[in-house]
Amino acid sequence: MKKNFCSLSHIQVAFGFTLLASGLAIGQMRVITGTVTDNTNNKPISGISIFQEGSDAVATSNSSGIYRVEVSGENPVLVFKHPDYPERKVPLGNKTVVHVSLGISSDENEIKEVVLNAGYYKVAERESTGSIARITAKDIENQPVNNVLQSAQGRMAGVSITQNSGVPGGGFDVQIRGRNSLRSYATTGYDGNKPLYVVDGVQLPQVNDFNSGMSASIHPYSDTNPLNSINPDDIESFEVLKDADATAIYGSKGANGVILITTKRGKRDRTEVNLKTSYGLGNTTNLPKMMSLDEYATMRRLAFANDGVAVPGIAYDINGVWDPGRSTDWQKYFVGNTAEFSDVQVGVSGGSGGTQFSISAGHNEETTVFPGSYRYKRNNIGVNVQHASSDKRFRIAFSGLGSFQDNTLPPTDFNLVYSALAPNAPNLYNSDGSINWENGTFTNPMGPATQTYTVDTKSLNANLTSSYVLGRGLSVNLNTGYSIHNAYDQKIFPKTTYNPNSNIGSNVSSIRKGEKLNQSWIVEPQLNYELKWGENRFSALLGTSFQEQRSENMVMVGRGFASDEMLTNIGAATTVTVPSAYESLYRYQAIYARFNYGYKKRYFLNLTGRRDGSSRFGSDRRYANFGAVGAAWVFSEEGLLKDSPWLSFGKLRTSYGVAGNDQIGDYQYYDTYQTTGGSYGGSSGINPQRLFNRNFSWEVTRKFEVAVETGMFDNRLMLNLGYYHNISSNQLVGVPMPATVGFASMQANLDATVRNRGLEVTVQSVNLKGRDWKWTTGLNFTLPENKLLEFPDLERSTYSNRFEVGKSTSLVKLYRFTGIDPVTGLYTFDDANGDGIINTADRSVSKEIREYWYGGIQNSVQYRNWTFEVLVQMVSQSQYNILSTYGDVGYMGNRPSVYLDYWTPDNLDAQFQRPSAGYSTAAATASTRFATSDATVSDSFTVRVKNASLTYRIPLPEERKLVARVFVNGQNLFVFSNRKGLNPEFLVAGYSTPLRVVSFGLSVNF
Q: N or C of the chain: less Cβ packing under 10 Å?
């Protein structure tokens, strides 16, 4: 009994001590309240994360900046975090009310607190060993754009973004530190320089592996962009990984850079509703002034006189058949209209405890500057849900983005049409509304314009991630994703295309339908480990990636209909053929690892390795190893500089690594065959398409970078300077073959070498900061160089007219223009080889179509509730000029007024040769050569006001918990350039350029 009694006493004593300890702990629990404001304008800040240092319990400030959080223990420290503000730590002492003002101050270092998304991991910008450029929702929102790439133009060093067309749904040329591959649309019909796009951890498929060919005359190269399906308002951050250290974790996928998009997440402890609506108007800018009717008629009559031909009966524009006094500005009619832009977005976000959610939906519409009811529509929906267990060890998150696009366009870009019409061409329509063919004398462009082109696109991007903390710094992650991108395009060819006098009926009407079905999935299990030991910090990541992309593509043509009323139903066609059907399966797998070491928060080393396998190569060369090493030294933490009155932050970093590239398309190494498309004796035939090459393998790019990042004067001035040097070899191109082989080329690795190197400068400054005023400036500058270093036997290959060693890979070989013969009035050219004959062998002038340098300057001025921002984009480049766009002087069809400077006996110093109506072979030949001469390429300097916005926050009582803003924004507002007559931003001559858009809108949060 005594023993039992003693045991019970011990239990009672232990239980008593436990209660006492618990009571003390409970006694130490307290509630901290307060507000969070911006120190530049004294306005409340919502969405600030507040938590006790060392605790997982997080509170969030509301729209009035008010927060409430529980703390415990001795000497607690409260942490305030937000991606747009420096982190703030406040020792509490005995306080229960803490009001905090966030912003840049003498004891805060902004660059330390910015967290960058590096794909498979996140890293503080202070500790990053790689080159990562970033813009946030603040840079993207309120811009009248339907693709985030338009928002990113001019904002990042080393990132060149060019919009291919002003027509909705078009593509973009994105170059991250230059073009590494020789494959481009111009040379191979396939661009091997596209970056990798990743949205919430899911890699988007390249959507242009197969083209139906129906949109080539409306979108250059039939090119679109996978980000057309992503609503810019759903994006929280947009990061670009540039150097080897940043991209190595993606292996061969990151050879041309990686673009990471993170969508918006829900916030804790408060449900918030966001509504945004805007309406805008757009028009074409920099259109050339055209000849007047009198100027045109004089030129045309002179053209026939120069050819020694009397004005013929088919010259309806000047022989009196068409009204000689009638004049129409066809340029204004076809491309001078006003496009409308409308956008409505609504979102709901919130959460409580360990669960947060965000749901968004929107509708976007855009018309064109063309005559007709052409329209682009996009409906989008986004869902994001995150959950964490009560002990924070298990986390799971789902994000899904859906997009439904509907694009109705003419069969061709009308910018290619108007110059083919004479100023006195007849009315396009008769009084009864029918198409006017003017008794068979007029080829009315509105006939072919009835060939409407439509494309419906359905996209889904879904991501599910989960993680579990095993303990002692060890955790496991699983990232899975599924993506669908289906496009259904259709082009109809009705009988109205043709002049009714030709008696062509519905029996020749046709419809062409295309389907591009792409679906892909990715599974990536990962193992993470972190360890802190004194001044040392280790982290490691080990993961694998399994990816599959399946594509099914088909084109069907239906011909012969009983009536055009049935034209959209291919089942009503008399005959249906399938000229193209294509299926492909692409599989990709990898294992990757990352090891990061930090010492004393000033020395950092990052090692990355990856082994990739791609089904696009033969079994002998299917796998390859890639990797990188990066290092950084935060020298501002050293003793002599740590207390420097002017140096707030300083870091030196460098990296080197090797990446691959498999952007070549599927089955390129196989013996492949293609059907003939017809039949003989009831059977269809096949043609050999390419030869088998078991040694077909990866392109390889070796990347080196060294950079210095500094912050001065309490980080009011930050300067980053970097140099990169990339070498790309083992180029995947068609190697020319002897004619006896039966193939012009064989897909193989060519021992050619391309170098991209350059200098990047980024400057950010806080010029003015006060209670009511704040003025900040950001500048970026890039000095790039692209050069072909080696190409064995180039002179004897079919690429001799495309490339030249020592020059840029964006090269054209041209005739040397030597002026106008004062006797004949015709263009003359240099006989480079001296054989007395001018032919393609005399294209001796090499012109590089490239950017010499580019950059941007962004200014943001805040005054109380007003915010004004302006982005100016600048570029110095060599580009095609207006002389490359328009043809012969003297043919039917109007020309820009610059062409009035043509040769006559009284104008021997003219810019253009004598007019010809096409009856002079010598004049036609000279004009053709002129279009491919060095006269059509020139240097230009352009300053473009890319974006400007003015926002006003409506003052409302804080207790209403309502934040309302009105804004006006402009895109592509003004262009100042010495390149006259055309918008300097274009890749393919003749297509519409990006529009000037001015929009007005309202955003409400409550």
A: N
> Distance (Å, rounded) from C-alpha 757 to C-alpha 875?
18
Q: Identify any residues that bridge with 134 across adjacent strands, giving them in sequence order.
A: 239
Q: With CA atoms as reference, report the closest residue to 443 among 497, 510, 504.
A: 497
CA 214, 196, 233, 385 dihedral sign is positive
Binned at pLDDT 50, 70 and 90, residue 671 comes out as confident
The answer to whether the CB of 971 falls within 8 A of the CB of 930 is: no
Judging by beta carbons within 10 Å of its beta carbon (0-12, 13-18, 19+), is residue 606 exposed, middle or buried? buried
For the chain, the helix, strand and coil percentages under 3-state DSSP, each to the nearest 5 = 15, 50, 35
Q: How confident is the model at residue 20 (pLDDT cuts 50, 70, 90)?
A: very low
Residue whose token pair is 């955003």:
1003
pLDDT, tens digit (0-9, with 9 covering 90-100), for 188-198: 556 788 899 99
The residue among 1002, 1005, 996 whose CA lies nearest residue 145 is: 996
* Beta bridge mates, 207: none
Task: Give the residue-averaged pLDDT of 469-488.
Answer: 93
Give the C-alpha separation, 994 to 170, whole Å: 10
**Which phi and psi angles does 424 have, rounded to 5°?**
-100, 25
Q: Which residues pair with 773 in a beta bridge?
A: 863
Share of the chain above pLDDT 90, in %: 57
State the Cα–Cα distance between residues 412 and 452, nearest whole angstrom: 9
Q: Cα(380)–Cα(401) distance, rounded to whole angstroms?
A: 7
Question: What beta strand segments (E) does 252-374 contain?
Answer: 258-263, 272-283, 339-352, 355-367
Residue 679: predicted pLDDT: 63
Residue 46: what pLDDT? 80
The average pLDDT across 617-626 equals 86
Q: With a cut of 80, say whether residue 745 has pLDDT above it.
A: no
Query: Taking 90 as the threshold, does the pLDDT of residue 375 lie above it?
Result: yes
Q: Give strand pairing partners of 764.
A: 718, 778
Give residue 921's pLDDT band: very low, low, confident or very high (50, 70, 90): very high
Half-sphere exposure of 240 (CA within 13 A, CB side): 23
Among 926, 840, 940, smallest CA distance to 880 is for: 940
| Cα torsion 61, 66, 71, 74: sign | positive
Closest CA to 283 of 994, 823, 856, 777: 994
Q: CB 515: neighbour CB atoms within 10 A?
A: 17
787-809 pLDDT, tens digit per residue, is: 999 998 888 777 888 899 999 99
Collapsed DSSP state (helix, strand, coil) of residue 839: coil
395-447: pLDDT as tens digits: 999 999 999 999 999 889 998 889 899 999 999 999 999 999 999 999 999 99
Q: H or E stretch including 725? A: strand 717-729
* Domain ranges across the chain: 21-103
**Spatial distance between the Cα atoms of 412 and 812, rounded to a whole number of angstroms:** 26
- Distance of alpha carbon 752 from alpha carbon 641, whole angstroms: 47
**The residue to which tokens 């970056």 are assigned:** 195
Instruction: At 842, give phi and psi (nearest 5°).
Output: -95, 10
Q: What is d(CA 901, CA 909) in angstroms, rounded to the nearest whole number?
A: 9
How is 858-885 classified by DSSP, letter by letter?
Answer: EEEEEETTEEEEEEEEEEEEEEE-GGGT
Dist CA 37 CA 957 (whole Å): 16
Query: What value does the CA radius of gyration of the chain take, rounded to a whole number of Å?
Result: 32
- DSSP designation for 507: G
pLDDT for 83-121, tens place per residue?
A: 667 778 888 888 888 989 887 543 333 444 567 766 788
Q: Which CATH number fits domain 21-103: 2.30.30.240, 2.60.40.1120, 3.30.465.60, 3.40.640.10?
A: 2.60.40.1120
**Integer angstrom CA distances of residue 695 from 666, 740, 957:** 15, 22, 71
Q: How confident is the model at residue 26 (pLDDT cuts 50, 70, 90)?
A: very low
